[in-house]
Design brief:
Layout: E1 7-11, H1 16-31, E2 40-45, H2 51-65, H3 74-79, E3 81-85, H4 94-101, E4 108-112, H5 119-128, E5 136-140, H6 148-159, E6 167-169, H7 177-187, E7 201-209, H8 218-243, H9 252-264, E8 274-280, E9 282-284, E10 287-289, H10 292-296, E11 305-311, E12 321-327, E13 334-341, E14 364-370, E15 374-382, E16 393-401, H11 402-405, H12 414-424, H13 433-453, E17 458-461, H14 468-475
Parallel strand pairs: 1-2, 1-4, 2-3, 4-5, 5-6, 7-12, 8-17
Antiparallel strand pairs: 7-13, 8-11, 9-10, 11-12, 13-14, 14-15, 15-16
Length: 483
């Protein structure tokens, strides 16, 4: 059922995600007059505070995390906010929460950002208070389980109250402009789609590199590790967008149908197709940083780095490897997709007058997602000159910087788009249950292979690009990681 909600209920409203992303995103949408005047925002969490206390809390978060030029009408935005203290483990407070939400004339959107153990009691509490009607949408923030079994338990609990067409599973990478631009690049430009296949593409690299360590996520990260924290959701979603077939149109069903086909076509990894690592003390940007065990305060075999050679076994991608790499305490913060095209089948320039400068290099498309959003395409061009000793060729870049290409457009927080889509009821950039379960099925198989191999993380120095075995994983195929 299509409706635009006039109430937004934020669980975990005093948490880090709310401070850094949710409240700044909502204030920015308000400043751009993208929220209807009657949309009310209700925060709830264990913290004991009243409406005024929550507004002061929100003001401090906005002043810290939202650029000053995007805080237009902040006082009016704060007036949208109210708060209700809630212990989600009991039913007692949910009736008071429902009273605080009040009558949602057009509909209610709920953003649930809590520990996975609270999903089921929260859903029961919402049902108890009547906050699960046909004009209510539920948005779920990760983590959605630790494996396929626990993910199904969470999805079953939510499905007991909400049908799939009112469940919005968030992956904030899908809200990033450059990720969405990947679809435009592929499906709005005739020059790319005919070449987007195994006949013309040699391999694909996807890198999500972080310079940070644990940063207050000690308990969660040591239970999850890099594979479940980053590969299971963000990286597999990026892979699916790169590899998907053209959907019939740009709507939620068509796009997600094509993504899930890719995820179900992922080949189970074999021995030697994955590398894990854990950082040791080193330096990031010249500053000394401790090793993972030192930050954790105890010994651990949790991986902070993983590299995988993946394959999509379908007609389009047969024989094309997808190299995935992610880790903490790497030299730079970068998320990018590299599409390496094949060499031309024959060079007409080779050997002319013995020219050594006519060596061909394959075209390469680099899609930068963060920290800078850009598209870089390398092309072969002739070096200017009279060519008396032979034609010289050189790879030259064609660069599109998104901020430069669209002057005056705000660099938006990824959650702005996703929160607005939640309020308005567009599921296109949210993840469907069958996608989540296909992702977990593949990840569980990876972990099972690690267990069979008794694989333990190899050490790497903080500030490096991971274990040397990760370099060898690509180089044995004649591939170099893009750095």
């Amino acid at each position: 059922m299509s409706f635009t909600a006039d109430r937004l209920l934020l669980f975990g409203a005093t948490g880090d995600l709310s401070q850094r992303m949710l409240l700044p995103s909502l204030c920015a949408l308000h400043a751009d007059e993208l929220l209807a005047p009657d949309v009310k925002i209700i925060g709830t969490a264990r913290s004991d505070m009243d409406d005024a206390g929550f507004r002061n809390f929100a003001r401090e978060a906005l002043e810290k995390f939202l650029p000053a030029d995007r805080r237009g009408g902040m006082a009016d935005f704060l007036n949208r906010l109210s708060y209700q203290t809630l212990d989600a483990t009991t039913l007692e407070g949910f009736n008071d929460l429902a009273a605080k939400v009040g009558t949602a004339e057009r509909g209610l959107a709920i953003f649930l950002s809590t520990a996975p153990s609270l999903f089921e009691p929260t859903i029961k509490g919402l049902q108890h208070a009547g906050l699960d009607g046909e004009h209510v949408r539920m948005c779920l923030e990760k983590p959605l389980g630790t494996d396929l079994g626990t993910s199904c338990e969470i999805n079953d609990a939510v499905a007991a109250a909400f049908p799939e067409d009112r469940i919005y599973r968030i992956d904030h990478y899908l809200g990033k402009e450059t990720v969405q631009n990947l679809l435009a690049l592929r499906f709005a430009n005739i020059m790319f789609e005919p070449l987007w296949n195994a006949a013309h593409i040699d391999h694909v690299q996807i890198t999500v590199a972080e310079t940070v360590g644990l940063e207050g996520r000690v308990a969660f990260y040591d239970d999850a590790g890099a594979l479940r924290d980053m590969v299971q959701n963000h990286m597999l979603q990026l892979l699916a967008l790169v590899a998907m077939e053209p959907p019939g149109n740009f709507d939620a069903t068509a796009v997600r149908d094509e993504k899930v086909k890719v995820l179900r076509s992922l080949r189970k990894i074999s021995r030697g197709e994955t590398v894990t690592g854990q950082y040791r003390a080193g330096a990031i940007n010249g500053d000394a940083v401790p090793g993972y065990d030192d930050e954790l305060g105890e010994d651990s075999d949790t991986e902070t780095f993983v590299a995988i050679k993946a394959h999509v076994d379908n007609w389009r991608w047969k024989g094309v490897p997808f190299y995935l790499r992610t880790g903490k305490r790497l030299p730079e913060r970068v998320t990018e997709i590299v599409v390496q095209f094949r060499c031309v089948p024959h060079s007409i320039f080779a050997g002319r007058d013995g020219a050594s400068g006519a060596k061909m290099e394959p075209n390469q498309l680099v899609i930068g997602i963060q920290p800078e959003e850009n598209v870089h395409l390398s092309m072969m061009a002739k070096v200017p000159g009279l060519d008396r000793e032979g034609i010289r060729l050189r790879s030259v870049p064609l660069d599109i910087s998104m901020p430069d290409a669209f002057v005056g457009a705000h660099k938006r927080i990824a959650y702005e788009r996703l929160l607005l889509d939640l309020i308005e009821g567009d599921q296109t950039l949210f993840v469907r249950r069958d996608e989540v379960e296909a992702q977990w099925e593949w990840i569980d198989a990876v972990r099972a292979e690690w267990a069979d191999q008794e694989l333990t993380p190899q050490s790497y120095t903080a500030g490096s690009w991971g274990p040397s075995a990760a370099i060898a994983l690509a180089e044995k195929d004649g591939v170099s990681w893009h750095e």
